[in-house]
Each structure stands twice: as C-alpha cells, then as structure tokens.
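Hi V.,

Quick status before I head out on leave. The structure for the redesign project is tokenized and pasted below; the design run finished overnight.
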C-alpha cells in the first residue's frame, strides 16, 4: 500500500471507484431490505436485475479493458492481429445469445439460462488469471483461448435473457418501459465503469493475473445476487413448460460442448467471418419465414425490427474501436499523464451514468408533449453522433500536429459523442425489440439484436486491423485516415435513416399495440 502522499492520478481514480462501489452497494442493501414491492416507481425485480447485471458487466468490461494490451504486451501479437482477435472475441460474445435465447424461449426459461451462463462466465474469468510466461509459443496460451471460450458461451446464455426479463416485469403499454431499460442500462454501465477502473488499474500496475482475478470475483458476486433475488422477479423468466431433468441436463451439455467449438473458432478469425455470413443468412431466412406467417400489423412491426437491427453493424463497428484501436491510440499518442490507458475505457460508462437519467427524463418529457423522436429517428441521430465523434478526434489530432501528443480533451470529446449516440440507440433498441416482437419470438429477436451487434464487433476488428496498415503495426496517420473515412460514412448513413424514419415508424403500429 503506497503512502497517500505518493499517490498519482491512477491511484486516486481507483480509490474513488472503490468509494462509489460502496455507495451503490449501500443503496442496493436498502432496496433489498425494504418491504414495499416498488422503489422509485419501479418493481424491486428491476433493481435485482440491475445489480446482477452490474457485477456481470464489472467482470466483462474489466477484462475487456485489459484485453488489447494483454494481447500486444503479454502474448506479443501485432497491433493488426490483436485488433482482429479482439473483434472476433467480442463478435462471438454477441452471436451466442442467438443460441442462448432460443433455448431459453423453448425450454429452459430465462432464469435458468442466466444462472447457467453465469457459472460458465465465472469459470472463464477464473481461467483468465492464468498468465503463463507470455509469447505465442507458451503452452499457457491454450488456457487463454479456453477462458475466452467459456466467457463467450456464458455470455450467450446470459446477455439476451436477462434483458428479456426486464421487459417481463412490465406490461407492453406501460409508459415506464423505456425508463426501466435506461435504468437497467445504468446498471450495466456502473459495473462497466468501476470494473474497467479497478481491473485495469490492478492489471496494468500490479500484474495481469490480479486484474483478471478481480474480474472473476465480480462475476461470482453477480451470481450470488441473482440467486438470492429470485423471489422479487414475480415469476419472470420461468420455463415456458415443465422440463424433464434429463432434457435439461442435455441442454446444459450442449452449452458445455459449445465451449470446445468456440475454443477452436476464436483462434481462426477467418472462419468466424464465414460463419457470420452463413448464420446471418440462415437467421434472416428463419425470421422472415416467421414474419410472413403473421397478420399485417405484426408483420410490419417485424419489418421495423429488421430495419433497426440492420443498423447495428455500422454503429457498433465504430463504437467498439474503444477497446481496440482507440485504446492503442490513447496508450501511444495521447498526453495522458500517469493514468494507465486501460482506465480511459471507463469514460464511456461514466458518461452514461451521468447522462442516462437525463435522456430517460428527456424522452418522457417529449413523449408527454407528443414530440418524442421515433425509434428509427433516434437511430439516425445515433449514427450522426458516432460519425461526428470520429471526425472531432481526427480534427483535434491534426490541428495539434501528427508529431505532437494529442491533448487528452479530444479523447473525452470522442467518448462524449459516442456515448450520446449510444444512448439514442442501445436502450431504445432493447426496448423496441422486446416491445415489437411476438411473445413466442421474444428471446430469439433479442438474440438477433445481439447477433447484428456481433457483426458490428467483427467489423470493428477489421477496421482496427486496417489501422495497422500492411505491416500490422498501427501508425497515427493511418488511424486518423481510417477514422475520417468511416466518420463521413456514418454521417451519410444517418441522413438516409432520418429520411426513412417516418415510414418505419408507421410500420411499428404503436397505436394498436396490446398487452399480452
């Protein structure tokens, strides 16, 4: 333990994160012991899911903060290859919810799927603490691949299903739904911010194993919260029909077998690209098959769902540079003082914690006056802001000179615009998927939402790989060139989406939605 007089910026940031975590835990304890079924206008079940997801995101985002540096500094991959591995890993994290969502819809129910996924995640984060000696010839790298595989499959069973359970706490016409998803999204980002700071701090200042070990502890705490809070869910997430124990065990066996498959896939990124194309076509075909069996209004709602989902790859392809090329840029080309580069990934979730309540209130305030932008219009605004984030970073870096270290203020501006864009897209998209999809397709459509986010994450890896040029090592000039190109592409796409938003809003038929 350092003498406080010797603390630098990173030490103070980590200490503040510990205090903030303590405050949130105290609030959670107060909610848990109160007898009233609601807190601040929402059911207690929402807050249980909030804290369970907070701890899961603590572990996931903490590990994510270190991953690109772990790949380049410990396993000694080139910048281009490390970005591609990062993109492949995060894409698989978002594609596996299709399987997890399907099994939950048809057999397990969301609650058991989340519990099983949490167990796999805890194993995966525990394995991440095995460092070995480093370098790609070290046999311990196979443990690293296995850790990624457990985390990927565990996320598949947990991600889509815990989001669906939030929606099950409310009626379809309940005006609190968007606000509930925004509160839930705050839980995600409280965990992401604190996990990024504490795991990143330990990993970069003490040792990789300490950082990844703390991420594993966070996942175990999340599991405990979920198990103990079952009674406040009011039946949300239960299996659709009684399930024989033998079949249930078989489904868990499928999940464990998937770990072995993913262990191989994550090492061969070109195979993942082919898989995304083939499975994407198959998923689209199945969703369209189910869509055309529906009456006119539900069918058009599904068309709106598909339109919104199709915008994910571009937005997340740019947004997810945060954990890849943007982290390497911050590490090498930004005047950041003594603060480890991994801690800068906490800026986005901190902005969300600050801005999410304002956005939730803004949507409600505009909604009461009949002026709230439609979901597709919000998506258009999200793309515009993400494109502008890229361009602001490029303009700032070029204004101060390629040879000079970029002032840290432009990193904060980049994340501010990316965050306001995210708040116009992600919680709104989660709510729209749950609201517009037929009940028997709810988890599958949520899985499809995450699937197209997976495509976006793989695109992010390819964009990050491009910043490395032909030699694989990133240069400041090349990164700024790529960021400027995709910034303008995103703004152009935003204009098209805004022009089409009125048509897509008509497909949603919000005036005739009925509660299930």
């Amino acid at each position: 333990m350092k003498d406080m007089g010797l603390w630098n910026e990173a030490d103070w940031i980590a200490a503040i994160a510990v205090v903030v975590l303590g405050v949130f835990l105290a609030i959670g304890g107060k909610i848990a012991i109160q007898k009233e079924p609601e807190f601040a206008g929402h059911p207690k079940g929402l807050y249980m899911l909030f804290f369970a997801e907070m701890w899961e995101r603590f572990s996931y985002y903490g590990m994510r903060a270190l991953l690109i540096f772990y790949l380049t500094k410990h396993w000694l991959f080139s910048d281009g290859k490390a970005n591609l591995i990062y993109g492949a890993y995060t894409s698989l994290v978002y594609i596996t919810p299709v399987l997890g969502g399907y099994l939950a819809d048809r057999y397990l129910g969301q609650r058991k799927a989340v519990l099983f996924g949490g167990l796999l995640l805890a194993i995966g984060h525990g394995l991440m603490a095995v460092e070995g000696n480093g370098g790609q010839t070290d046999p311990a790298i196979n443990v690293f691949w296995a850790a990624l595989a457990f985390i990927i499959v565990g996320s598949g069973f947990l991600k889509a299903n815990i989001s669906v359970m939030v929606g099950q706490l409310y009626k379809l016409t309940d005006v609190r739904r968007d606000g509930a998803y925004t509160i839930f999204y705050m839980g995600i980002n409280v965990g992401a911010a604190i996990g990024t700071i504490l795991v990143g701090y330990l990993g970069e200042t003490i040792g990789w194993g300490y950082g990844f070990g703390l991420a594993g502890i966070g996942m175990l705490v999340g599991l405990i919260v979920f198990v103990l809070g079952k009674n406040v869910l009011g039946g949300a997430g239960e299996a659709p029909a009684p399930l024989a124990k033998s079949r249930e065990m078989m489904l868990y066996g499928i999940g464990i077998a998937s770990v072995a498959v993913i262990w191989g896939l994550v090492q061969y990124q070109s195979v993942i690209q082919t898989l995304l194309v083939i499975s994407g076509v198959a998923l689209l075909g199945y969703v369209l098959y189910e869509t055309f069996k529906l009456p006119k209004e539900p069918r058009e709602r599904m068309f709106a769902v598909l339109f919104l989902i199709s915008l994910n790859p571009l937005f997340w392809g740019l947004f997810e540079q945060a954990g890849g090329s943007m982290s390497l840029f911050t590490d090498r080309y930004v005047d950041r003082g003594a603060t480890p580069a991994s801690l800068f990934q906490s800026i986005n979730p901190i902005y969300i914690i600050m801005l999410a309540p304002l956005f939730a209130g803004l949507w409600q305030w505009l909604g009461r006056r009949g002026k709230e932008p439609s979901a597709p219009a919000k998506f258009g605004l999200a793309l515009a802001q993400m494109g502008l984030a890229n361009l602001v970073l490029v303009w700032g870096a070029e204004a101060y000179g390629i040879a000079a270290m970029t002032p840290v203020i432009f990193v904060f501006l980049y994340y501010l615009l990316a965050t306001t864009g995210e708040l116009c897209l992600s919680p709104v998209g989660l709510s729209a998927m749950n609201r517009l999809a037929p009940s028997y397709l709810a988890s599958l459509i949520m899985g499809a939402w995450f699937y197209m986010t997976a495509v976006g994450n793989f695109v992010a890896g390819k964009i990050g790989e491009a910043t490395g040029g032909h030699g694989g090592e990133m240069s400041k000039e090349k990164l700024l060139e790529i960021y400027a190109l995709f910034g303008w592409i995103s703004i152009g796409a935003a204009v098209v989406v805004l022009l089409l938003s009125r048509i897509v809003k008509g497909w949603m038929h919000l005036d005739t939605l009925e509660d299930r």
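Above is the designed sequence. The first strand starts at residue 38 and ends at 39.

G. will cover questions while I'm gone.

Best,
W.
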